[in-house]
Design brief:
The structure holds two protein chains of two kinds. By secondary structure, chain A is an all-alpha fold. Chain A has two domains: 36-231 and 242-277, Cytochrome Bc1 Complex, Chain C (Up-down Bundle), CATH 1.20.810.10; 284-390, Helix Hairpins, CATH 1.10.287.980. Chain A has 14 helices and two strands, in the order H-H-E-H-H-H-H-H-H-H-E-H-H-H-H-H. Chain A has helices at 7-18, 21-29, 45-66, 74-83, 88-115, 124-146, 151-162, 171-179, 186-215, 235-260, 290-298, 302-322, 334-354, 360-387; strands at 34-36, 232-234. In chain A, helix 6 (124-146) packs antiparallel against helix 9 (186-215). Chain B is mainly α. Among the domains of chain B are: 27-65 and 129-216, Orthogonal Bundle (Cytochrome Bc1 Complex, Chain D, domain 2), CATH 1.10.760.10; 222-248. In chain B, the strands form two sheets. In chain B, strands 1-2 form a two-stranded antiparallel sheet. The chains are: A mainly alpha, B mainly alpha. The interface between A and B is large, with 46 and 43 residues. Bound molecules: protoporphyrin IX containing FE. Protoporphyrin IX containing FE binds next to helix 3, helix 5, helix 6 and helix 9 of chain A.
Chain lengths: 406, 253
C-alpha cells in the first residue's frame, strides 16, 4: 500500500480547508451527528417533508417555464402543459398531488411532535420554526391553487381574501390591497404567482433554521427522556438507511395516486375555467384547509370566526407553556394519551365538517369539534399537567422501566 | 372511564358519516370502461365511433377546443386520414393582400367553435350556453359515467313539475331542468364500422371519446406508472435489506 495520498484525496483536503462543506454535512446529517437509537418510524416524516419540498420546487420550476400568469391564458397554459409539453401531465400531477402529500407528511410530523412532547423545553424555538413553515406552506398552497384559474381557484381566492374584510376599519382597504383592484382579477393572479414562486424558497430557508435548531438539543425520542451518549448512534448510516427505506415506502403511495388517481384529491370544478359571473353552488378549499375552514364557519360572527381560525394555528406557538407536565412522551401519560387520540379524531371530524354546507348537523358537530380543539390546548393541557400521575420514567433508553415495588 | 370517552367519540364520528350518506341524488348509470383499472386502455374503435357521434351530433352546438386534429392519430387514424379530415373544416384567414378569406383546416388546427361568440350561442339555445366538451369528464363528479347517464337521463317530468320555457327534464342533471334537448336515441347515427347504434351504445361511445379528449395521456400515464412502481418497489426492498443489515451491527455490539 502506498502512503502517497491520491490526487482525489489531496483535492478534497484542499477544498475542505477552504470551504468545509463535506464536514459540515457530516456533522449535520452524517456520521458526526449522534441520534437516539430508539427513534421509531414517526421520525421518518421530517426527511419525507424535506423530500416533498424538493419535489415541489423542482416540478414547480418546470411548470413555471410553461405557465402563463394571465387571466385569459392561465387555464389554457395549464391545459397545454397537460397535453403538449413533454411529460407535462406528469410534472403537473406530481405538483398538484405533491401539495397534498406534503401536507399529509407535515400533519403526521406535527402530531408526532404533539404525542412525544417534542415542543417542550429545550425545543421551543425548533417548534416555533416548524409552525412558521406550516404557515408559509399554507400561504404557498393557497396561492398555488389559484394559478390554474379554474372555478375553485377563483372563488376560493375570493372567499379567503374576503375574510380580511372582517377586520374593523382597515379590513376593506386591506382586501383591495391584496387584490390589487376591486375584485380577484388579473393583478391578483400576477402577484399570487410571484409570491407562489418566492415562498417555497423562504420555506427552504426556514427548514435550514429548523434543522439548525434541531441540532442544538438533538432529536427527541419516543421515551421523551434525555438520550445518554451511550444510547446514541451516528445518523449515517443508521438513520440515512432507515430514511431511505421510509422514502421508498412513501413513494409507493405518492406515485400510486399520481399515476392512478391524480384527480381524486382535487375538485372537478377546477377543470371549469374561472367565471366571475357564475358562483359554484358549494365553494370548498383544498382538503388540507378544511379543519380550519370548519372552525371559521362554526362561529356565527365573521370577525370572531377569522380570529378563531388564525387562533387555531397561533395557539400552537404557546403550547410549550400551556402544557404544564414535565414528562414529554405521551407513553408515560395515561390520560394525556386519551385526550391526544380524541384530538386526532376531532381533527378528522373538523376536516369532514369543513367539506359540508354549514347548516344542521354538520354545523353543530363543527361547533362541538371547535370547542374541543381549543379546550384541548387551553384547558386540558394546563390542567392535566397538574392532576395526572405519570408512569415511572426509565432511567435511560437502554434500561427497562423498573417495576414499582408491590 | 377511558372507554366511555372513546365510545362517545366514536358515536360522534359515526353520526357524521350517516349525515353524509343522506344527501345523494339519483345514482348514476355505471359502466365497465376499457380505460378503468390500473392497466386500462382506450378502445380505439370505440373512440372512432365517439368521434363520429361528436361530429354528427354534438359539434353543431359544442366546441372541443383543446383537441387538435393532429391528436386524432391516437384514435388509430393515419396522418393522411387526419389531413383529409381537417381539410373538411374551414377557418378564417387573411391572405397576402390583407383580405378576409377562408382556408382549409390543417392537422395543427383545433376543432372549431360552432358559434361566433357566447352571446350568439346563448341566443341559439334559449339562453343556455353549451359548454366546451374537451374537459367535460374531468369537470363533473362521476366523469364519463356522468356524461353516459346524462345522455340517457331524459324522461317525462314527474307530474306537478313546471318546466321553464325551452327546458327539458333530465333526471341526472343538477336541478333536473337542462337547456340541452335530448340528443341520443336508437339509430341516431349509422356507424361506419357497422356496430349496432343503440342509444346505450352511442352514449357509451361519446362518453369514452370525451374522456379521451379530457385525459389524452391516460395510457401513457398507466404505462409510465407501472415502470415507476416497479422501480420504486425494487428500491424500497433494497433499502429495507440494507437498513436491516446496517442495524444488525447494533445487536452484535
Ligand atoms: C412549498 C412548495 C409548494 C406548494 C405547497 C405548492 C402548491 C401548489 C398547488 C396546490 C398548486 C395548484 C395545483 C393544481 O391544482 O393545478 C400549484 C400550482 C403551481 N405551482 Fe406550486 N407549490 C409549491 C412550490 C412551487 C414552486 C417552487 C414553483 C415555481 C418555481 C411552483 C410553481 C407552480 C405553478 C407554475 C403552478 C400552476 C400550474 C398548475 O396549476 O399545475 N410551485 N402549486
Amino acid at each position: 500500500m502506498s502512503t502517497e495520498k491520491s490526487v482525489w484525496r489531496r483535492a478534497y483536503e484542499w477544498h475542505e480547508q477552504r470551504l468545509p462543506i463535506v464536514s459540515f454535512l457530516d456533522h449535520s446529517i452524517g456520521t458526526k451527528y449522534p441520534a437516539p437509537k430508539n427513534l421509531n418510524y414517526f421520525w421518518n416524516f421530517g426527511s419525507l417533508a424535506l423530500f416533498m419540498l424538493a419535489v415541489m420546487i423542482l416540478t414547480g420550476i418546470f411548470l413555471a417555464m410553461n405557465y402563463t400568469a394571465h387571466k385569459d391564458m392561465a387555464f389554457d397554459s395549464v391545459e397545454r402543459i397537460m397535453r403538449d409539453v413533454n411529460f407535462g401531465w406528469l410534472i403537473r400531477y406530481m405538483h398538484a398531488n405533491g401539495a397534498s402529500f406534503f401536507f399529509i407528511v407535515v400533519y403526521v410530523h406535527i402530531f408526532r411532535g404533539l404525542y412525544y412532547g417534542s415542543y417542550k423545553a429545550p425545543r421551543e424555538v425548533l417548534w416555533w420554526i416548524g409552525i412558521l413553515i406550516f404557515l408559509a406552506m399554507m400561504a404557498t398552497a393557497f396561492m398555488g391553487y389559484v394559478l390554474p384559474w379554474g372555478q375553485m381557484s377563483f372563488w376560493g381566492a375570493t372567499v379567503i381574501t374576503n375574510l380580511f374584510s372582517a377586520i374593523p376599519v382597515i379590513g376593506d382597504p386591506i382586501v383591495t390591497f391584496l387584490w390589487g383592484g376591486f375584485s380577484v382579477d388579473n393583478p391578483t393572479l400576477n402577484r399570487f404567482f410571484s409570491l407562489h414562486y418566492l415562498l417555497p424558497f423562504v420555506i427552504a430557508a426556514l427548514v435550514f433554521l429548523h434543522i439548525w435548531a434541531l441540532h442544538i438539543p438533538g432529536s427527541n425520542n419516543p421515551l421523551g427522556i434525555e438520550a445518554a451518549p451511550a444510547d446514541k448512534i451516528p445518523f449515517h448510516p443508521y438513520y440515512t438507511s432507515k430514511d431511505a427505506f421510509g422514502l421508498g415506502f412513501f413513494m409507493l403511495f405518492y406515485f400510486a395516486v399520481v399515476f392512478w388517481a391524480p384527480n381524486a384529491m382535487g375538485h372537478p370544478d377546477n377543470y371549469i375555467p374561472a367565471n366571475p359571473l357564475v358562483t359554484p353552488p358549494h365553494i370548498v378549499p383544498e382538503w388540507y384547509f378544511l379543519p380550519f375552514y370548519a372552525i371559521l364557519r362554526a362561529i356565527p360572527d365573521k370577525l370572531l370566526g377569522v380570529v378563531a381560525m388564525f387562533g387555531a394555528i397561533l395557539v400552537l406557538f404557546v403550547i410549550p407553556w400551556l402544557d404544564t407536565s414535565r414528562v414529554r412522551s405521551a407513553s408515560f401519560r395515561p390520560w394525556f394519551r386519551v385526550f391526544f387520540w380524541l384530538f386526532v379524531i376531532n381533527a378528522v371530524v373538523l376536516t369532514w365538517c369543513g367539506a359540508q354546507l354549514p347548516e344542521g348537523l354538520p354545523l353543530i358537530q363543527g361547533r362541538i369539534a371547535t370547542i374541543y380543539y381549543f379546550v384541548f390546548f387551553l384547558v386540558i393541557m394546563p390542567v392535566l399537567g397538574w392532576i395526572e400521575t405519570p408512569k415511572p420514567l426509565p432511567a435511560s433508553i437502554s434500561t427497562p422501566v423498573l417495576k414499582p415495588a408491590e | 372511564m377511558k372507554k366511555i370517552v372513546l365510545a362517545a367519540a366514536a358515536a360522534f364520528t359515526l353520526t357524521s358519516t350517516a349525515a353524509l350518506a343522506a344527501e345523494a341524488g339519483p345514482e348514476l348509470l355505471k359502466r365497465q370502461w376499457t380505460f378503468d383499472g390500473a392497466t386500462g386502455k382506450f378502445d380505439k374503435l370505440q373512440l372512432q365511433r365517439g368521434l363520429q357521434v361528436y361530429r354528427e351530433v354534438c359539434a353543431s352546438c359544442h366546441s372541443l377546443k383543446y383537441v387538435a386534429f393532429r391528436n386524432l392519430t391516437a384514435l388509430g387514424y393515419s396522418e393522411d386520414q387526419v389531413k383529409a379530415l381537417a381539410a373538411e373544416y374551414e377557418f378564417k384567414a387573411i391572405d397576402e393582400e390583407g383580405s378576409d378569406v377562408t382556408r382549409k383546416g390543417t392537422p395543427a388546427d383545433h376543432f372549431p367553435n360552432p358559434y361566433p361568440n357566447d352571446n350568439f350561442a346563448r341566443a341559439s339555445n334559449n339562453g343556455a350556453l353549451p359548454p366546451d366538451l374537451s374537459l367535460m369528464t374531468k369537470a363533473r363528479v362521476g366523469g364519463p359515467n356522468y356524461v353516459y347517464s346524462l345522455m340517457q337521463g331524459y324522461e317525462d317530468p314527474p307530474p306537478g313539475t313546471e318546466l321553464l320555457a325551452g327546458m327539458n327534464y333530465n333526471k341526472y342533471f343538477p336541478g333536473h331542468q337542462i337547456g340541452m334537448p335530448k340528443q341520443i336515441s336508437d339509430d341516431q347515427v349509422t356507424y361506419a364500422d357497422g356496430t349496432k347504434a343503440s342509444a346505450e351504445q352511442i352514449s357509451a361511445d361519446i362518453s369514452a371519446f370525451l374522456h379521451w379528449a379530457a385525459e389524452p395521456k391516460l395510457e401513457a400515464r398507466h404505462a409510465t406508472g407501472f415502470r415507476v412502481m416497479i422501480y420504486v418497489l425494487i428500491f424500497t426492498i433494497l433499502a429495507y435489506l440494507l437498513k436491516r443489515k446496517i442495524w444488525a451491527r447494533l445487536e452484535k455490539k
